[in-house]
Amino acid sequence: MITFQTISSETYKKNHDKFQIYYDFYDAPFGRCIIALTDTDKAILHFAFVVKDDIDALKDLENEWPMSKILKDSIQMISNIMKNIFNMSDEKEEESILILLKGTDFQIKVWKALMSIPKGKTTTYEQVAQIINKPKAVRAVATAIGKNRIAYLVPCHRVMGKDGSSKYSCGVKYKESILSYESNTC
């Protein structure tokens, strides 16, 4: 089960000194990724795919959380969390995973809506706009989806254009791999 906390960019700026972030790299079933979490409650605040190399992926994390102290996870907290995420099965009791969403109220509303899309299914930007009761905000919904910084857990990969077109900020290759993985594990 995924639970979440939210924080606005303004609140982060005011309280940045309270954020110490741990990161590590993980080889997920569909590709290498960088994951980061808070030091206090172990909330995942960044989950992105390594598109170019580890150095660039780390720079993206630092740019997203510029006022925070960012440290390499030396005690394998992240590895244990990721193993839990990818080893969940129906027979095993699911552990709760906490994520921290940082964005505007609109972005957070869109990201929460994405979490309602069933695993292995896809929807359209238009349908997401309907879910949040903003049917005319399709472009704004698409922009918010593109700014999602918690891949896979906030499943932006499940959204397609109404014509079936497929875009993904980390590349269509990752999107297709995740959808295939989900189809095989549902």
UniProtKB/TrEMBL annotation:
One of its GO terms (molecular function) is methylated-DNA-[protein]-cysteine S-methyltransferase activity. It catalyses: a 4-O-methyl-thymidine in DNA + L-cysteinyl-[protein] = a thymidine in DNA + S-methyl-L-cysteinyl-[protein]; a 6-O-methyl-2'-deoxyguanosine in DNA + L-cysteinyl-[protein] = S-methyl-L-cysteinyl-[protein] + a 2'-deoxyguanosine in DNA. CDD domains: ATase. It comes from the Eukaryota. Coiled coil: none annotated. Keywords: DNA damage, DNA repair, Methyltransferase, Transferase. It holds the Pfam family DNA_binding_1. Belongs to the MGMT family. This is Methylated-DNA--protein-cysteine methyltransferase.
